[in-house]
Amino acid sequence: LLLSCSITFAYHPHLHMSSSNSFRPRRPTPTRIIETKNYQNAAKLSSKFTLDNTPSFPQTNPKTVAIIGGGLSGLSCAKYLSDAGHSPTIYEARNVLGGKVAAWQDSNGDWIETGLHIFFGAYPNMMNLFAELDIEDRLEWKPHRMTFAMNDDQGGANGKFTSFEFPDKVPAPLNMAAAILGNTEMLTLVEKIKMVPGLLPMLIRGQDFIDEQDEYSVSEFMEKYGMPGRINDEIFIAMGKALDFIDPEDLSMSVILTAMNRFINESDGSQTAFLDGNQPDRLCAPIVDHVKARGGTVMLGKALASIEVNDDDSIQCIKMADGSEVRADVYVSAMPVDVLKRVIPTRWSTMPYFCQLNELEGIPVINVQIWFDTKLTSSIDGLCFSRSPLLSVYADMSTCCAEYASDTNSMVELVFAPCTIKAGAERDWISASDNDIIDATMGELARLFPNEIGSNTPNPAQITKSTVVRVPRSVYAATPGRNKFRPSQASPISNLVLAGDFASQKFLGSMEGAVLSGKLAAEVICDGAAGRDGMELKDVDPSVKSRKDEKKPVGIRGDTPIAFGGGQQGDANAKEVHV
Q1: Residue 151 — pLDDT band, cuts 50, 70, 90?
Q2: Label partner for 106 (CA 20 to 30 A): which of 98, 135, 181, 218?
């Protein structure tokens, strides 16, 4: 499909748009996505909201809802509440929406991103959201393949790549089988066969089996099922770092199995798409327009100071950093878990529901963008798993994304992970200087592009600009055993609901998880307003110890993006921001 809507591009001095690249034909959304059970279930939940507020049967018990946080979970919650005829107001502390997908323009007009965000076909609620907002044409779908940089002993030092190619029109799980069997460069046939005993129970028992494996690390799971170590070296290390920025020794196997279950059972589940531009304009803005058109409100620069409670523990009001007070019928916390823990009122601090949050903590990650003075001709049109000790995944955005499109200059975006010793790195990169991080990144790129960046090439590509964005607390760290501590959206507080990818839902810490969690939070409110039986409060694991003594909230320190759980530019050696 040709781009059917008009896009206004900001001037980028480092990237010169060409008509051949900027407006190249696009693949439509894979048609089999809408045939999956997960997509249909997501569509059914979406229709539940609109049925609460039809012209014939308008909403009779509209609620005012204060949503604290304008990331994807808060935006999703507001969208579906407004569909149901309620009156949501988003209070976002920063001057940009998106939370962990936020982006902003620098003085040159270039967009600086918090992370490299990829959309999978196995994101049913996200795909429904795009369809409901009529912005599906903003997704740039890539060929259905998974591409890996080869290890040095396989030719990786010479810039060699290999791919799992998923054949068109072949249904799941046969297309996955064909992709795995068709690649002879990463695993032997014997190694592929030895993967089966560990994956077969997942296919037979589904989500129940996946949930049970949350107590095992990837390494422990492999040992349990006799998987060869090379499967870890060739596949799981790259997957683990891409999905949760952690090495397999510290990553719950449920993360890997959740992804593989979707990829194996859904024909287009592993197919990827890039948004055709920055997230605030191309995704967040349409949600805001949708919410405002239905009577909702979105407020920026409105940071939370405290949550004030009544004698029955319900919320009386929330106080903002500017001194104002907000009162509503219902309150939604769409804050990251690390921020929420800092503002839990004293009266709530002994409740097991809130005590379990101490078992959840965001994982650090770094996003790097590098602009070059030339086009890297060997870069691919799509996501690449680097299999580097320092880098997770990367993409040449000048090839993959319309807003950055250029035939003459590359802009490579990379996820630098793991970036702390605790997460598996050899040093704490999160506190390293920008120069050290860029130098280390260029060393890895020289391996990936030896004929264009390496020292052996006569005219190596030169950096014209680079940015480093640190996120000290990104998605929750999915270490073994965390799922049992993830709270339900329903809470023991009568007028409080939780949203966020850390809250209980099956898509873990991801954009899909954030959208689904916000949607489930909206469902809790709508069911309550309609007098319907809704989500039950999830039992707190017996291992959670209630506090004997009440704890006063420490509050949010500072007004930087990091203080609110976001990503921030700037040399980490300048000063540390407490989160």
Answers
A1: confident
A2: 135
